[in-house]
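Key result, reporting period 2: structure in, sequence out.
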């Protein structure tokens, strides 16, 4: 039987107060907080699952003096407002109908029904908030130890429920994976065209999540090899995949944090109009569009005029261009 090691977040008094308000057996930590604690990684967001329906959650928390916001009430999610960080509490659910973009769900009473509707085994881990016992219905603890990103049940069925899971699979592979899952890889490639039916915002956001990881280069290259990248970013060819690898190395050598928009610029040919088109297609913000287009305007002359470029186009763009050119941006870092 697996147990969570005691981490700072598991001992927060306000979380104990929240659990007490919901009542014995009515809350378990779930998802990323459990997974990341088992890995010894930092935990940012805390989610809880409960068999209580949303109204009961709200009533019990308000009675205990804990403010709530019905952030996703139609899907059973209530957010508890806490000083140390909010907690999303979601009623146990099971899928009734899916169309590849969204699911119709019904509330459930069994923890395993809730686990079965999740995407990967490593995300379907629950922990008792008092004893820290981990409940693992699909072998997620073993998969986590093996760095194996595996869909729950049939990969094709999970993907058809929500095609965004293809991009999530690659993101989790880039973050946690070492052992490739042949069934998952084949399913993602086979069903990649389903990504075209998703909202552009969801695709753009998931791409940014992937590109913002420490080193997604090998994963992005594999996405291209399997025909997945061509569906969401057809502009990225062999040269652009190589440019991404060089950029990641340049960022690391310069001691700079990963930057998703800069890396997206590496995956697009250096043509400002094309960058504008990609930004519009992925529904990027205005500032992100401007930055992507500025990076696409790079030229061999950039390396000779770093500060002059910064004066003309801004420091962020100048740093992007220097890194994309393989140049050291040290003279501009921290410079206003």
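The corresponding designed sequence is given below.
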């Amino acid at each position: 039987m697996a147990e969570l090691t005691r981490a700072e977040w598991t001992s927060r008094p306000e979380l104990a107060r929240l659990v007490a308000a919901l009542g014995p057996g009515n809350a378990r930590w779930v998802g990323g907080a459990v997974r990341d604690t088992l890995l010894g990684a930092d935990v940012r967001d805390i989610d809880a699952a409960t068999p209580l329906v949303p109204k009961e959650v709200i009533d019990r928390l308000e009675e205990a003096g804990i403010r709530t916001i019905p952030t996703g009430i139609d899907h059973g999610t209530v957010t508890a407002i806490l000083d140390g960080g909010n907690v999303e509490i979601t009623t146990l659910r099971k899928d009734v109908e899916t169309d590849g973009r969204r699911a119709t769900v019904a509330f459930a009473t069994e923890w395993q029904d809730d686990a079965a509707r999740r995407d990967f085994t490593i995300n379907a881990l629950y922990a008792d908030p008092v004893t820290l016992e981990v409940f693992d219905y699909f072998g997620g603890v073993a998969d986590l130890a093996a760095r194996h990103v595996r869909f729950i049940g049939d990969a094709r069925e999970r993907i058809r429920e929500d095609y965004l899971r293809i991009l999530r699979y690659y993101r989790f592979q880039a973050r946690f994976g070492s052992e490739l899952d042949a069934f998952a890889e084949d399913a993602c490639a086979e069903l990649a065209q389903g990504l075209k039916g998703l909202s552009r915002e969801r695709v753009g956001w998931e791409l940014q999540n992937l590109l913002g990881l420490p080193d997604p280069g090998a994963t992005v290259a594999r996405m291209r090899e399997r025909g997945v990248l061509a569906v969401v970013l057809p502009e990225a060819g062999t040269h652009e995949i190589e440019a991404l690898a060089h950029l990641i190395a340049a960022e690391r050598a310069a001691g700079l944090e990963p930057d998703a928009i800069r890396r997206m610029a590496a995956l697009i040919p250096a043509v400002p109009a094309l960058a504008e088109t990609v930004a519009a297609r992925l529904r990027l913000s205005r500032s992100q569009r401007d930055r992507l287009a500025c990076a696409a305007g790079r030229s061999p002359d950039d390396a000779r005029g770093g500060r002059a470029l910064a004066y003309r186009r801004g420091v962020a763009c100048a740093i992007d261009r220097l890194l994309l050119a393989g140049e050291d941006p040290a003279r501009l870092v921290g410079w206003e």
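The CA atoms of residues 175 and 329 lie 27 Å apart. The two ends are 55 Å apart (CA to CA). This case is discussed further under Risks and Mitigation.
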